[in-house]
Amino acid sequence: AGIGKCVAMDLARRNARTILACRSRERGQAAVEEIRAATGNPAVVLRLLDTGSLASVRAFARAVLQEEPRLDVLVNNAGVTGLPFTITSERLEQTFTTNYLGPFLLTNLLLG
């Protein structure tokens, strides 16, 4: 939704292979179908990613590096606000992990 979906739509309109990295399979697949229909680009795919989980970030990065021949653009757009104070299973604060640590780790893993 929002800015991320608009960016993905623009990339797909430019005929780019576009990977939507979403926490929700249902919402992500709906966005993929909408973007494909609006742009005519069949190379829009969904991959599950929760930047609030460093294990999820590592799994996502590993899959992208194995499956994609190259990565030209990375847009880190995930973020949350207003959550109650929560500690993740990795013993990190949830909001800080989702907004900063997860995207930082993802970027560094994808740099190779």
TrEMBL record:
One Pfam family name is adh_short
Q: Keyword Heme: yes or no? A: no
Family statement: Belongs to the short-chain dehydrogenases/reductases (SDR) family.
Q: What is the name of the gene encoding this protein?
A: Dhrs13_0
Organism, per UniProt? Oxyruncus cristatus
The cross-references to InterPro entries, in alphabetical order and at most eight, read: NAD(P)-bd_dom_sf, SDR_fam
Output the superkingdom of the source species: Eukaryota
**PANTHER family, per database record:** PHOSPHATIDYLINOSITOL-GLYCAN BIOSYNTHESIS CLASS F PROTEIN-RELATED, RETINOL DEHYDROGENASE 11-LIKE
Leader sequence residues: none
Annotated SUPFAM superfamilies: NAD(P)-binding Rossmann-fold domains
The entry's keywords: Oxidoreductase
What protein name does the entry list?
DHR13 reductase
Recall the GO molecular function terms of this protein's record.
oxidoreductase activity
